[in-house]
Specification:
The complex is a heterodimer of chains A (90) and B (413).
Chain A (H helix, E strand, L loop, with lengths): L1 H13 L3 H4 L4 E5 L3 E5 L4 E4 L3 E6 L2 E15 L3 E13 L2
Antiparallel strand pairs in A: 1-2, 2-6, 3-4, 4-5, 5-6
Chain B lengths: L1 H9 L1 E7 L3 H10 L4 E7 L2 E7 L3 H11 L2 E8 L1 H7 L4 H17 L2 E2 L1 E5 L6 H11 L5 E2 L5 H11 L3 E9 L2 E8 L13 E5 L3 E10 L1 E2 L6 E2 L4 E4 L1 E4 L7 E4 L3 E17 L1 E19 L2 E3 L10 E14 L2 E21 L2 H19 L5 E11 L3 E13 L1 E5 L3 H16 L1
Parallel strand pairs in B: 6-9
Antiparallel strand pairs in B: 1-3, 1-4, 2-3, 5-7, 8-9, 10-14, 10-24, 11-13, 11-17, 12-14, 15-16, 17-23, 18-19, 18-21, 20-21, 22-23
Helix pairs in contact in B: 2-3, 6-7
The chains are: A alpha+beta (90), B alpha+beta (413).
Chain lengths: 90, 413
């Protein structure tokens, strides 16, 4: 935990991008129809109404209607559909 | 986006997985570097697309996660190609198309000439044709440098030429030389003579000796301004020199006119009925298959449009023509003597105007009419003011000069 704080302090002091130094997810929204999650840690559950994605910052629950996974690679995933909510569960 | 395009060309497999651990299956695939896209739930299972070459990995992952795998189909470019497998005619067609495109693009189809003002385009094109540059000429056989040289030699009015081939078009760009000033020949002795009979109104001699005065009656061919100029004071020894006479002579001239107009005539009355006809001609011969019936009907033919088929500038001996027949009937009509007279006077005036040169004016037209039972005859005399000077090479010429020299010598002795 101490190590994490040190990293945070350094990246804040030097203004470094935290998604790289701290391995945090970078979540981009395009309107309410597409969400891109970089640095994800895998899909936990998958459904049309909700998708749970594991990230370093906690489990990200994306809720919406007619959700679909447009693409999935080792570090990027793109979800399309009509988005309703983005929520961190832990 | 680009990744999807890349995998479209590589080809992909559409699979469906059943089982409780579909998420684990997908995570495992992405962890092992397999690109997964277009994931959608379908019933109890999940449908997704994976690249063509990764099926090995996909089946391993499915086995490890305990998912049931079902291949639904193949997509992408290779799969599309596979659909054409065994269709020889299509392949031959594609090949023929490619060959045809190549062959057609190795000919010249359009030739343009730019920048010419005095040299006519037809002259340049016809000379180019002699050199082998014409529509439907083989592109390899055309040498722009040679044509440039030949054109410069052939046309002295052209100072610069560039012949450029771009695709199937040839553009001949031309710069013309500065126009030479028109040289008026002032050396060769010549007389000014009358071009028609008349009475002189005004005579202005720029060079030469006037031979006639205002009010003189001249016949066609009479010398008006002589080329002979006497040098020296009157009464003393004079000798003649010959110049190119020039001047401006106006005269009153008369012109006889006759015209006739019948009192009854036929007039076309168009019925408004129109028939059209399309004609296809080969080598100038009309192949008129469907001709509208014009039995016992009189009609004026009007060509609506005419088009020669061509490949670029290369004329194919086929042309399309569309004609329209305006059907009319003839109606007998008559005019009164007064109407006929008015009409005749108008025609006479028009005739006279056509004969006038740019310097001439109509003074008056006297017309008298002869009336017959069925027609009116008009005889008129138009009085015009017209320029009548005309240059004619002096008959005396050099010999005359020699002759006068001899005379002078004789006088001197």
């Amino acid at each position: 935990m101490k190590k994490m704080d040190l990293r945070r302090g350094v990246s804040e002091a030097l203004d470094l991008p935290k998604e790289i130094t701290l391995d945090l997810p970078l979540i981009s929204l395009t309107g309410r129809e597409e969400v891109t999650v970089e640095n994800h840690k895998g899909i936990l559950t998958y459904g049309e109404e909700s998708i749970r994605v594991g990230t370093k910052a906690g489990t990200l629950c994306i809720r919406g209607q007619g959700l679909g996974l447009k693409q999935l690679t080792g570090d990027v995933l793109v979800i399309t559909g009509k988005l309703v909510a983005l929520e961190f569960l832990t | 986006m680009f990744l999807a395009l890349w995998y479209y060309f590589r080809g992909y497999v559409m699979i469906k997985v059943h089982g409780f651990a579909a998420e684990r299956f997908m995570n495992m695939l992405s962890y092992r570097g397999v690109y997964v896209w277009d994931v959608a739930t379908e019933g109890a299972g999940v449908k997704l697309k994976v690249p063509m070459g990764s099926m090995n990995m996909v089946s391993i992952c499915a086995e490890k996660t305990g998912c049931r795998l079902e291949v639904q189909g193949y997509g992408g470019f290779p799969a599309k190609i596979r659909r054409f497998h065994g269709r020889q005619v299509l392949t031959v067609g594609i090949l023929l198309f490619a060959v045809g495109l190549y062959l057609l693009s190795s000919f010249i189809w359009v030739i343009r000439v730019e920048g010419n003002e005095r040299v006519s385009q037809e002259d340049i094109l016809s000379y180019c044709q002699e050199l082998g540059l014409k529509p439907a000429a083989w592109k390899r056989g055309v040498h722009p440098e040679e044509i440039t040289k030949e054109l410069l030699v052939q046309f002295p009015d052209i100072s610069w030429v560039s012949v450029g081939i771009k695709g199937t078009d040839v553009t001949i760009k031309i710069a013309e030389t500065i126009e030479k000033a028109e040289v008026v020949d002032k050396e060769t002795p010549c007389d000014v003579v009358a071009s028609m009979d008349g009475v002189i109104l005004k005579i202005t001699a720029e060079r030469g000796t006037p031979q006639v005065q205002e009010g003189d009656v001249v016949k066609k061919g009479d010398v008006l301004i002589s080329s002979e100029v006497l040098i020296g004071l009157e009464g003393e020894e004079q000798h003649a020199e010959y110049v190119a006479a020039e001047g401006f002579v106006t005269a009153k001239v008369w012109q006889q006119l006759t015209a006739e107009l019948p009192l009854t005539y036929d007039e076309k009355v168009y019925t408004g009925e129109i028939k059209t006809n399309s004609i296809l001609s080969f080598w100038g011969k009309d192949a008129d298959f469907i001709h509208p019936s014009l039995e016992e009907e009189q009609a004026d033919t009007e060509v609506l449009f005419e088009k020669d088929l061509a490949l670029g500038d290369f004329k194919v001996p086929i042309s399309i023509k569309k004609e329209q027949y305006n059907i009319y009937t003839l109606e007998k009509k008559s005019r009164t003597v007064e109407e006929a007279k008015a009409e005749l006077e108008e025609t006479l005036r028009k005739k006279t105007e056509q004969c006038l040169s740019q310097y001439g004016t109509i003074e008056k037209i006297d017309v008298h009419y002869e009336e017959y039972t069925d027609c009116v005859c008009a005889k008129g005399q138009a009085e015009l003011t017209e320029r009548i000077d005309e240059k004619q090479e002096a008959e005396k010429g050099r010999d005359a000069i020699d002759g006068t020299d001899g005379e002078n010598n004789a006088n001197g002795q």
